[in-house]
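RECORD CONTENTS
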Amino acid sequence: MSSIMEAESGKVEFVVPDTAHLMGGCRMGDDASTSVVNSCGQTHDIDNLFICDASIFVTSGAGNPTNTVMSLALRTADYVKQKAKKLELQASRP
């Protein structure tokens, strides 16, 4: 990844010293004052911006989060497709 960044004149600012699943930075919830995204991964503050990775987790479980992340990403993609077909992607909340 560092080689790709540097080949495009980018600069690597930080490297996690070990493998990690970074969680909780964009928490999911109904209240915009305590969360970043709603239950569909759509941000409260920026219309039509969706986040579907482990950062939306409120807490971590005991296992690897990969399958849960993939499930959330699929659910978010289905939601976006459904709303796009109906031209309903103007609002931040479902």
Q: What stands out?
A: The first helix runs from residue 2 to 7.
